[in-house]
Amino acid sequence: MSNVPSCPKCNSEYTYEDRGLFICPECGHEWNLEIETENSEDKNVVKDSNGNILSDGDSVTVIKDLKVKGSSSSIKMGTKVKNIRLVDGDHNIDCKIDGFGAMQLKSEFVKKI
């Protein structure tokens, strides 16, 4: 039996190696062992809905209509948000949206421009 690591995303033990990448058949995660150890050192890696890495100052677009708590209006799909700031927590993007003011967004509902 070979020494194949468990999946870092779902902890599945059914991973296998293919052409230098480790693949998890349960969640579909693919990783390279060297890259995964580098990413584990940098804990605050935030990715958009397409998997692009976001950084402070990026511009993003909202990919679906988002309801705003305490307001009768919502943030419409296609709204552009400039100069985002990454923070720790469930909502990992701080930003200002025209017409709404300061907001916190989840990175899974935006894509990088």
TrEMBL record:
SUPFAM superfamilies recorded: Prokaryotic SH3-related domain, Zinc beta-ribbon
NCBIfam families: phnA (TIGR00686)
All residue ranges annotated as the Protein YjdM C-terminal domain in the record: 46-112
Signal peptide from the UniProt entry: none
InterPro entries: YjdM, YjdM_C, YjdM_N
Organism: Clostridium paridis
Family: Belongs to the YjdM family.
Residues covered by the Protein YjdM N-terminal domain: 5-32
Official protein name in the record: Protein YjdM
Gene3D superfamilies named among the record's database cross-references: 2.20.25.10, SH3 Domains (2.30.30.40)
